[in-house]
Amino acid sequence: MSLEIIEGCVNCWACLPLCPNEAIIEARPHFLIEPEACTECVEAYATPQCAAICPVEGVIVDSLGVALNPPGSLQPQVA
Amino acid sequence: MSASILGSPLSAGGCSSARCGAATSQTDQLPASLQQRFQDHPCYSEEAHQYFARIHVAVAPACNIQCNYCNRKYDCSNESRPGVVSEVLTPEQAVKKTLIVAAEIPQMSVLGIAGPGDALANPGRTFEVFRELSRRAPDIKLCLSTNGLMLPQYVDEIAAANIDHVTITINCLDPEIGARIYPWIFWNHRRVQGREAAEILIAQQQKGLEMLVARGILVKVNSVMIPGINDEHLKEVSRVVRAKGAFLHNVMPLISEAEHGTHFGLTGQRGPTPEELKNLQDACAGEMSMMRHCRQCRADAVGMLGEDRGSEFSLARIDALQIDEAFEQAARQRRAEVREAIHAELEAKRATRHGGKAEVLSFTPLARGRPVQMAVASSGSGVINQHFGHAREFLIYEASSKGVRFLGTRRAAQYCGGEVECGEHEADNTLARTIAILADCEVILCSRIGIEPWRKLEEAGIRPDTEHAMESIEGSVFAVWRQMLESGRLDVAPFADQMRA
Ligand code: SF4
Ligand code: SF4
């Protein structure tokens, strides 16, 4: 069970210090999640921490490839 | 204010109103204890920024909120010009870089952590740098900038680390307005969106401000002026934050080029015109001065304001250099000497400003004559010493019967978005854009200027003047104004107004 960071990640660092398992790696061309280390935060938090702070839609996905922040989800709700 | 100060271009002595001071002395109006704390600070003292240098180190990459004027590919736009990317340093690298820079640039007096994300979203890294430097370079002042979300939690640590200046970016007090600026924040391990996010952020900022002031830590507030969203509201923000004890309120213009890919940039939200910005800054300037010379420097800026010597201190070079206790000791010694020399020079200048000289011209009746805006090309030390074509920014002054007032700086076109995006523009285009930037100025003072720009500037009603090369800025601005008054040129409306009519 693990999440994955895919292309589109802007290497903003926001997720890295939040991971309870230090599963996030400062890699290039973009940051990565070490699959063996990631627990999807299930025991630690109500929601995966990396996905809760990531500013870019669609770049953190689950094992089925479904985006945790789907298109439109991070857009301003007010004009 | 007595008429006697009018004649002396360097004088602001005796006047307690923030509105009439000569350019070099806005901080003269602050209590003596505060002046003392500012006098070496290039970002807060207009005088000091000509002599002292600062360094920002990019150790804090993560951020915990989203602003509609920020694209997270780049550095935080509160603290930097949009579209800039800083190389992230480890705390060890940042400490070493600071010590090396402070040895090679002994005018170094301030270290700031302002990003490239939020200093307090990276508390471990940020405080490690502060702790280490307060031990190894205690003469260097420490400051940090934050969006304020985590401020209440870290106020005690800030006080313990001996940080004397904190900058909070506060764009609103009203959550309705906040919801139009901040789409979400990261709070208590989850993402909070919309109005609730703005409510939390605003409450944390205000609480943090109050806690810092209560601990005697200087607080400056930055606001980004977003026309149609918070422009009117910022007057209220200014009043409230100053009432709570912020010593400076600095209004910065929204920069929203579409190519930076920010929400505002992509949705066509425009930034303020220079005139709108100036009007708001004037409306917000109360008893205390606004920081008009702020350059929105980048998170890894090195050097005097308006210059960036960061390229001289590349990571490769920093890593390769070895430093030891003797090196640090010698650098501290050198900085102490340089600081003393600068203080002596500033003391002498202040004495001139407050003293004698004033009476000499006191009989000159100068009550007539409209104010004139002028642009100045200067690379520092308070003199006109730069070639028009080399200027990366212009200092804007207003001369009137009340004396000379510093209004702010404007970036020259060639430098608009940093060298990266717009180094390749053709000369004509750049000149036209510079002329547009200076449209409300009637004179441009510089040390030299090419024939072509001279002609184009004159055509646009901006008269180039190189007569005052190497002379003091305020003195020259005032002399030019007086010349205009005496020759009757102030009886006619400025060129820009004639064009509009
Ligand atoms: S889901 Fe949780 S454990 Fe997995 S990488 Fe993200 S923060 Fe780390
Ligand atoms: S928060 Fe998102 S964009 Fe930023 S580094 Fe992590 S995965 Fe990449």
UniProtKB/TrEMBL annotation, chain A:
<dbReference type="InterPro" id="IPR017896">
    <property type="entry name" value="4Fe4S_Fe-S-bd"/>
</dbReference>
<dbReference type="GO" id="GO:0046872">
    <property type="term" value="F:metal ion binding"/>
</dbReference>
<keyword id="KW-0408">Iron</keyword>
<protein>
    <submittedName>
        <fullName>Ferredoxin</fullName>
    </submittedName>
</protein>
<dbReference type="InterPro" id="IPR017900">
    <property type="entry name" value="4Fe4S_Fe_S_CS"/>
</dbReference>
<dbReference type="GO" id="GO:0051536">
    <property type="term" value="F:iron-sulfur cluster binding"/>
</dbReference>
<feature type="domain" description="4Fe-4S ferredoxin-type">
    <location>
        <begin position="1"/>
        <end position="30"/>
    </location>
</feature>
<keyword id="KW-0411">Iron-sulfur</keyword>
<keyword id="KW-0479">Metal-binding</keyword>
Automatic annotation (TrEMBL), chain B:
<feature type="domain" description="Radical SAM core">
    <location>
        <begin position="49"/>
        <end position="298"/>
    </location>
</feature>
<keyword id="KW-0411">Iron-sulfur</keyword>
<dbReference type="InterPro" id="IPR058240">
    <property type="entry name" value="rSAM_sf"/>
</dbReference>
<keyword id="KW-0408">Iron</keyword>
<comment type="similarity">
    <text>Belongs to the radical SAM superfamily. NifB family.</text>
</comment>
<dbReference type="Pfam" id="PF02579">
    <property type="entry name" value="Nitro_FeMo-Co"/>
</dbReference>
<dbReference type="Pfam" id="PF04055">
    <property type="entry name" value="Radical_SAM"/>
</dbReference>
<dbReference type="GO" id="GO:0051539">
    <property type="term" value="F:4 iron, 4 sulfur cluster binding"/>
</dbReference>
<comment type="function">
    <text>Involved in the biosynthesis of the iron-molybdenum cofactor (FeMo-co or M-cluster) found in the dinitrogenase enzyme of the nitrogenase complex in nitrogen-fixing microorganisms. NifB catalyzes the crucial step of radical SAM-dependent carbide insertion that occurs concomitant with the insertion of a 9th sulfur and the rearrangement/coupling of two [4Fe-4S] clusters into a [8Fe-9S-C] cluster, the precursor to the M-cluster.</text>
</comment>
<dbReference type="InterPro" id="IPR003731">
    <property type="entry name" value="Di-Nase_FeMo-co_biosynth"/>
</dbReference>
<keyword id="KW-0004">4Fe-4S</keyword>
<dbReference type="InterPro" id="IPR005980">
    <property type="entry name" value="Nase_CF_NifB"/>
</dbReference>
<dbReference type="InterPro" id="IPR007197">
    <property type="entry name" value="rSAM"/>
</dbReference>
<keyword id="KW-0479">Metal-binding</keyword>
<dbReference type="InterPro" id="IPR036105">
    <property type="entry name" value="DiNase_FeMo-co_biosyn_sf"/>
</dbReference>
<dbReference type="GO" id="GO:0046872">
    <property type="term" value="F:metal ion binding"/>
</dbReference>
<comment type="pathway">
    <text>Cofactor biosynthesis; Fe-Mo cofactor biosynthesis.</text>
</comment>
<keyword id="KW-0456">Lyase</keyword>
<keyword id="KW-0535">Nitrogen fixation</keyword>
<dbReference type="InterPro" id="IPR034165">
    <property type="entry name" value="NifB_C"/>
</dbReference>
<dbReference type="InterPro" id="IPR013785">
    <property type="entry name" value="Aldolase_TIM"/>
</dbReference>
<keyword id="KW-0949">S-adenosyl-L-methionine</keyword>
